[in-house]
Every structure is written in structure tokens, then in C-alpha cells.
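Reopening: Class I SAM-dependent methyltransferase still failing for me.
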Amino acid sequence: MDKARQVRLFDRQAAKYGRRRENATMQSWRSELLSGARGQVLELAVGAGANFRYYPAGVRVIATDFSPRMLTLAREAAKACRMEAEFLLSDIERLEFPDHSFDTIVSTLSFCSYEDPIGVLRKLRRWCKPDGALLFLEHGISRHAIVAAAQRLLNPLLYRTIGCHHTRDIPAMIAEAGIRIESKESHMLKMVHLLRATPGS
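Support: Ran it again with your exact input. Result attached.
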């Protein structure tokens, strides 16, 4: 899928994201993960700003997204949470920051959509400070054979309609990029992962 079409697809979904009321389980996962954020934070694919209410006091967030409509909703969410954040309308695959720019890098449900996810992960490893943290809440291929087979069958349709791959092995990709996973929780038939990581040596 070309990038312009992908941006249009997420723009069309923005209103739905803004109205979405997540269940208690997803809220608890976000809260648990983001309690570890500190200092200067980079958030990838901020979407409608669902994470803002869970950040600890005192963090400074740079929030990115390639969808103008998503970024508009994220600004509204930040205002509602009385949170100061900087917003960048940019494709993270084309964005650059100096090495060791961030204390914390956050990605929640974004690695399903990148054209080159390993390339993005290698960027994150460079951008994170050596003593910093990378926090992931991601979905991907299940460890259960029957569920995984269904995901592979449906993946082409889901990617065309919502711009999201469902067959990526997120923990394996993170490790391949040289990022060290410090802790991992897997849920929902091992399709959803909460991962806390460091840049590695």
C-alpha cells in the first residue's frame, strides 16, 4: 500500500478512534506500561491521544503521527488532560532525531502498519538514551497454531481495509533490531504483548 493511501485510510478512521471507549483491560495495560515513562518521551503514531491520561506527571512528550486528523484529535486529548505536548505531523519512517535524544520511547499498537518495521526499531534504538526505556504495547501473530492460521488467512483483507498487519512477530522483530527485552507479558491468546526494553549494547 502506498503511503498516501495509508494516510487517507487512517484519516478516515480518525473519528472512530476519537469516539472509541476502551475496555478496562486495555486501560489497565496502558496504565501499567506508561507508569514506566520518564523524562523526554517520544510517542510514535499517537493516534487520537489515548495514552495521554496515563503518563506520569512531569514527562515531556513529543507525539508523532502521519495522519492530520489523528493529530487534531490528539491535540484535543492533550488539552483535555491538561498535558503539554509537542506534535509532529510526520511519517516516523522518514523522521530523524539525533542519537540519544529520548529518555523513553513509547509505541502502542503502531508496529502493525510500518512498511519497514525493523528499520523503525533500529531508529528507536539509536534515538533512545543508553539508560533509557522503550515501552511497547503491540499486537501480532498468535503462538496458537489455529489462531495464527486464521490471522494469516485474514491478513490481506485487514491490511487493505484498516491498514494493519496481523501476522508480525513483534518480540522477534524487536530482538532482531538489537533492542534488549527486559520484561514481556503476552495476552489474548498470545497476540498482544506488553514489552519493556532497553537499547542494548
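The CA atoms of residues 64 and 175 lie 24 Å apart. If you still see a failure, please send the error message rather than a screenshot.
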